[in-house]
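Workshop exercise sheet. Pairs work together: one partner reads the sequence aloud, the other fills in the structure field after running the prediction. Swap roles for the next sheet.
Pair: D.N. / O.F.
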Amino acid sequence: MTLEKLRIFGNPNIGVYVFTNNKVTLVPEGVQEEAKRLLRDVLGTDVVETRVADSPLIGVLTAGNDKMVLLPKIARYEELDRLKEAGVPVRVVQMSFTALGNVILTNNRFALLHPEISDVETELVRSELGVLSVRRGAIAKVLTVGSVGVLNDYSGVFHPDVSDDELKTLEGFFNVRVGTATVNFGVGFVKVGLVMNNNGAVVGELTTGPEIMRITNILNFQRR
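Structure field:
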């Protein structure tokens, strides 16, 4: 896997701005051409500019996988239409939470949700994402599970406070290799500084050499 550094709008917290799966990467309107080119090359996807709920915080507000990109109920009709016109499989979901990227941690097979998401909403997420299994729970006592982990179909990078026993549980549920790391010079909420899919990964520009080495070691585990 290829791993590169990036900043968006001069900000190393790239994960709040960017959503990716293995087919498309969503970025805010006005992102620099060099950033879009890097994302396209490293992640191997099309890059589509958009806003969600008139906000550039796409990584916070959206969640999804290759089957479907989920938008919160506060998304605007014109935003939904624009993504559909760009060929993105997208659906607005009626859920109590709107920061979907923080409360849904998923790849193409499994999903872990904020423990306070309802039964009806849990089934909605399972159906829309087409995953084999979905659970609710916390990670390292953090309820916003999407903020403390980043997944692809082979690997998972998690907050350094995740215990060894919890890592084994996560590895068993997601059926991926897992490890803990930080980004952007010590930030444990890895979602803010790491964007990855099956093809590559991008980290915030403040991420140090040792942090990059640790992340690379996790992502370079033999694929299952």
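Discussion prompt: The CA atoms of residues 83 and 212 lie 32 Å apart. What would you look at next?
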